Amino acid sequence: MKKAYVFPGQGSQFTGMGHDLYVREPQVRDLFDAADSILGFSLREIMFEGTAEDLRATRVTQPAVFLHSVAAAVYAGIKPDMVAGHSLGEFSALVASGVLSFEEGLRLVSARAHAMQRCCETVPGTMAAIIGGDAEMIEKVCSETLGTVIAANYNSDAQIVISGEVAAVQTACARLKELGVKRALPLQVGGAFHSPLMEPARKELSEAIAKAEFHTPVCPIYQNVDALPHTDPDEIRHNLLMQLTSPVRWTQTVRNMVADGATSFTEVGPGTVLQGLAKKIAPEGTEISGIA
Question: Quick check: is 215 catalytic?
């Protein structure tokens, strides 16, 4: 029996997030204080008292979700047999598995957030959730569509998110509707995440990742780019950088963790999105829970 811990990404934030953890655990308060010092602004104040709009700002959202997830892991004292994180959540998973220190992880998350924000401002793009279409059909339509659009998030068999240029995503959505998908839902996002349009952000982040200190993890981390377990720090570093322009293979990740012995999945951090996805992907009888 193996315990898998999974960490959510951007979009799971909510007003007041992390407050209960901060009140309950002195060690968690140290993390919040350290975060404010590293970032140069009061992340804690925005998380606890800010509006939903405040939390949507990229420079806030990504550090906030990361901090909440790491704080929850510290509070629970988790001892994982394997870890994974959805997009941004991969950074939280790297801290939980000992690859990155909290401080190093937060610096990289902040650098990632700023790089992605700048990229979104200069390279327009969007995303759309495709409900009820199989992966092969969606990939085929994307490849046949004029412009840049790819399958970017394999969230479950029933939901794949496409990402790319605005016109290309719209064209792909229209074609997929013609082919009978249940829904093609435009997402309210700032850019074409996990697509080739994020290449400027990847290049900008590469220097920060190159300078960061990566350690051997205490357990395998299943990374987004290939859904496979990794323990070599150099491989992990490379895959983390490639993540910005590559699809998040979450369906494959959960299935590979199950194949490697995972009997329980615990989502660590804000929200319940990954618990919902695990219920759709993992076989019946798998224990699914959350720590927030």
Answer: no
